[in-house]
Amino acid sequence: MATEAHPAPVPPTADGAARPVPELPAEAVAQWRAERSELVELLTVARQRLGGVAAFRLGPHPTVLVTDPDAVQHVLGRHPDRYVKRSHRARMLAGEGVLSATGEAWKRQRRLLQSQFTGPGMRRYEQRIAEAARRAADRWAGYARTGEQLDIAEEMRHFALDTIWRALTGRPLDDRTDRELAAVARVVAALPTLPADGTDARDAVADDLARIDAVAHAAIDAARRDPAGDGLLRVLTDAADEHPEYTDRLIRDELVTLLVAGHETTATTLTWLFLLLDANPEARTRALAAGPEGSAERREAVQALVHETLRLYPSAWILPRHAPEADTLAGHRIEAGTDLLVCPYLTHRDPRWWPDPERFDPDRFTSPGRKPAHLGAYYPFGLGARACLGTQFALRETTALLELLLEYTPRFLSTPAGAAYGITVRPDGPAPATLAGA
Predict the structure, then answer these.
(1) Are residues 154 and 34 in the same domain?
(2) Residues 6 or more apart from 350 whose CB is under 8 A from it?
(3) What is the pLDDT of residues 234-277, one digit of tens each?
(4) Average pLDDT over the chain, rounded to whole?
(5) Which of 6, 30, 139, 180 is most open to solvent, judged by the fewest CB atoms within 10 Å of its CB?
(6) Do 122 and 242 sit in the same domain of this protein?
(7) How many structural domains is the chain composed of?
């Protein structure tokens, strides 16, 4: 997708009053509707024509797109109380889990889980991440030895699901659970196209939701029967002893939330990374040459591959917010009741901050001065109070896997033609390959 330079920011009026947000003309929206393009195409046009705070109208009221780093910081970082999260698209799947919860309930739920993903909490899961990575590496060694065809996207899904399942339950993912939890990916992929009516939407994926519920409740029962368990799920079941709001339904919702957030985004990132390496083989060569296996230099180079992939395909490509009260944003007046879309995908492709933004260039994250210093210029996991809880977990598991798999070179038999924009930005088709190397 081509990118263009921003228009210059519009200064306030002479008396210092905020200006209205510039709005995309109705004919531009009509053309987008006629072409039946992805939403990202409309957002790209709005940003290119109007800048980093731009409005467009799909109904009677304008929606405001936010991509300017200062404005991003204002909305997500400095004033999350003024720009709130409302109903999440994944609520039908994740219920009242921390991803979609709001207000005081969200604060309580986040407080309980946060300690599990930082410092000592993360150290508890290091071994489980390493075991899942080794299991995946053993599978790849078999593919390389036999020449058997594999699908990279499916392999990454299996690894990420195995990793989060070990963190949740303390057990490796078994084949039956793997088959049943494929329903998670099917529901996530279906969410953008489901009927607007909640009952009809739920009916459309009822069988998959039932499979997910059955796995979740079986895991909850097993955690209660295991007094020595120390996984994330045990943290949730123990919470019910002191906090009556942690009913079986809420524990199920948190479990499914962690499954969705803990494997869907990681699997997508890793799939994109291998596709990008296929198109840019010199990036793999440079990473392998950065230092011997296990060295700090090799790890830094691998992490740069991950970060550059996340720049192009952030875990959360769009972050909806709502302004209950009026505010001023980057010199523009935000009316009470306005819906906003903060878009990391477009911020990360802004040539003001990322020269030659469409190019895959991991050196941006290792060469001094090349990564923008502004916090609002790079936020693949969100920003501020509602940033992704599992950021460190995701970065650790992707790095652990790549340190073992990077020496393999997938030979793709075909590659996806483009991207599908749902909860994540995912490749829009399979990625069959055979393996060479190692």
Answers:
(1) no
(2) 3, 6, 47, 52, 67, 357, 377
(3) 999 999 888 999 999 999 999 999 988 888 899 999 999 999 99
(4) 91
(5) 30
(6) yes
(7) 2
In a domain, 381, yes or no: no
392: nearest Cα among 286, 292, 306, 313: 306
pLDDT of residue 121: 76
Q: What is the DSSP string of 161-218?
A: HHHHHHHHHSSPPPHHHHHHHHHHHHHHHHGGGS-SSHHHHHHHTHHHHHHHHHHHHH
Q: What's the rounded Cα separation, in Å, for the pair 172 and 130? A: 12
Q: Domain limits at 74?
A: 16-43+51-86+323-355
Query: Does any domain span residue 10?
Result: no
Can you give the pTM of this predicted structure?
Answer: 0.92
What is the rounded distance in angstroms from the CA atom of residue 193 to the CA atom of residue 56?
22
402 pLDDT more than 80: yes
267/407 same-domain check: yes
Statement to judge: residues 274 and 346 lie in one domain: no
Q: Are residues 159 and 267 in the same domain?
A: yes
Computed from CA positions of residues 221, 226, 227, 230, in that sequence, does the dihedral angle turn out positive or negative? negative
User: What does the block give as tokens for 238?
Assistant: 């123990």
